[in-house]
Amino acid sequence: MKLIVGLGNPGKEYKNTRHNVGFNAVDYYLQKKNILDKWTKKFDGEYLSTVIDGEKILFLKPHTFMNLSGLSVKKIVDYFNISIDDILIIADDLDLLLGNFKLRPSGSCGGHNGLRSIESYLASSSFKRLKIGISNNKNMDTKDYVLGSLSKSENDIIQGVFETVCDVLDDYLKIPFSDLMSKYNRKNR
């Protein structure tokens, strides 16, 4: 069993913000794969359970708001007894240019409050991550920037990234993570 978590904030006002690319990547993937299973509200979020290529996969969108994402992740991990090796977190990243993404097997939160919360609640930074670049605007307060809406041109770029993310997630379910990083991280250099 694997757990794929898309990070974001609940509510219509956050739907198209930079901070919600994790939520939106999960939704894009499920729509593209025509996975129409019903979301269940539980674990301080909503989760969807499905089977892909014979393996049970859980998708989670925490509804605790970004800064407490770890609370929701911890609840589902404990309930289903999920190994930290089987967790993939999808989050936005200010340090990556818009249109880029990076797979990491572990690491620091890099100032991302959602990742920091997950590290705190799981007492580990050894979970896998798929970080999607949103660039950074040094002329704006970081909070205002990440909670700001994507422009049409930014959204078009992100949609292109989501297409590739679908391939990444398909392969994540089939090949070792080191092979996954070798295959996809090269494209961002």
Total helical elements: 6
Number of strands: 7
Whole-number count of domains = 1
**SSE run:** EHEEEHEEHEHHH
* Strand line-up of the largest beta sheet: 2-3-4-1-5-7-6
What is the CATH architecture assignment?
Answer: 3-Layer(aba) Sandwich
Radius of gyration: 15 Å
In CATH, what is the class?
Alpha Beta
Level of helix content? 25-40%
Shape: globular
Q: How many angstroms does the end-to-end distance come to?
A: 32 Å
- Judged by helices, strands and strand pairing, the structural class is alpha/beta
Largest sheet entry: 7 strands, mixed
- Which regions have little confidence, pLDDT < 50, spanning 5+ residues? none
Strand content: 15-25%
Query: By CATH's scheme, which homologous superfamily applies?
Result: Peptidyl-tRNA hydrolase
Average pLDDT over all residues? 94
